[in-house]
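Structural prep section.
Before we set up the soaks we want a predicted structure of the protein with zinc ion in place, mainly to decide which crystallisation condition to try first. Input record follows.
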Amino acid sequence: MPTPETLLKSVFGFDAFRPGQEEIVSAIEAGRNVLAIMPTGGGKSLCYQLPALAREGVTLVVSPLIALMRDQVAGLREAGVEAGALTSANTPQDNERIFEAIDRGALKLLYLAPERLASSRQLLARLPISLLAIDEAHCVSQWGHDFRPDYLRIGELRAALGNVQTAAFTATADEETRAEILRRLFDHDDAPLTDDVGGGGEDPAAPAVFLRGFDRPNLYLAFEAKASPRKQLMDFVLPRKGRSGIVYAGSRNKCEVLATALRAEGLDALPYHAGLDAETRSHTQDRFSREDGMVICATVAFGMGVDKPDIRFVAHADLPKSVESYYQEIGRAGRDGAPADTFTLYGVEDIKLRRLQIDESQAPEERKRADHQRLNALLALAEAPGCRRQTLLAYFGEARPQPCGNCDLCRKPPELFDGAVAAQKALSAIYRTGERFGVEHVVDVLLGKPNERGERLGHDRLSVFGIGKEFDRNAWRAILRQLLALGLAAVDGQTGGWRLTEDARPVLRGEKGLQLRKDALKARGAAKDDRR
Ligand code: ADP
Ligand code: ZN
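Run finished without errors. Recording the tokens verbatim:
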């Protein structure tokens, strides 16, 4: 059977786990019963879908929300997974498809509405159910306002299925509800074992409860826009000489180049990427795990199997793939709970390259759109005007009332300025030039710098030509990047051309103001990517 990691990519198209997912999936894989408390939108479904696909038999999912079940079944079927939902809203055809899949032994996930629990008992007893997943598990709690009497039957069902391994999920974390869920779902002492079809008798393992928030308060978070990227990276890594760290880079070649550069500075650095033979890789990984003070310059290929508690820093020489990848990669630092530093470089070229990769991939349109959105979320984090940890956790659905005090933006709050006029100029320049030119051309127009193509197209005669002389080239790049991050502009993956989004209109018309970061304007030097 394929591993959850490979399924994450091959079936769902995700590059990385979200916070909590990996731990929960591992516990389920290890055979534990699980109660996981995750915020809404945190990515609960994947926690039982992955184990479902990674094992034999059928995973039964009890969920009270019919619309949600239907969405999930449709999504799974689209991804090539046989799934079905038994609900009161089913048509005979719906049911037929499910029974047919059962007969073929192809059904992987069966969603069940709680009101069908009692009537489905016979059918369920015939199925090779290997995992029971319970969504919205707080519905068993009589104290909660979401109480569903049908949920009380889950304990019985579980007993009838031979205390099959069970994973329960809820977003409600209060202690009383939690205790009640544990008692009702996992303590089967007073639940009648009516028709025990399983091995029977033995006590199920005590459930593993996942309640931790996703915050990793010991990690310092920092981003910098690329100005002179090599120097910026060295300024972060060299003072940390003698400590264990990972430098993630976007290409194999760059891993090699960076490792060589760090060795030249006297650091114990080695490259790690899929282009190296297996022996070299495992030797490198071994040394890194056992020894102190090594730096690995790696592609994302590095990290899955690394369980070193005292990694003191993680740097990204290039923008990670998504917020999920970012979180997972920085999360390798400071597992021991001691302070660790993270540092991420990002540039316009990174973003363009990523857009191109997404557009040129074989993925279906819908997934590409989702990938673009995920990239936008990462940019918004990179260019966040306030506390980075708050922005990061909010993305995963976890509210954090106070700024963290342990990120670059908390330590040095960015100066904001009224960016409405600058935004209007930049957006107008994109619009007037026909919404198909790249960032450099748009900046040429703003600065009033003639270029050959522009002259041919008459861009030097447009009213926007030269309206942005108050800022320099780097400042305009940074402004455009923030507009991209704010979702006011979008880049065509094929042509690299910038266009406006719907959200740009109120800003252009002066109906909506916006605050931009001032510090981004001060970035000096060639804002070029050093990718080779
Ligand atoms: P909930 O916890 O509310 O049930 P879902 O399981 O519906 O949340 O997931 C919320 C969203 O997050 C979905 O759009 C899902 O596709 C997305 N998602 C879940 N896991 C990941 C991941 N590892 N990487 C990227 N997106 C993810
Ligand atoms: Zn902060």
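Observations: The longest helix spans residues 365-382.
Flagged for discussion at group meeting.
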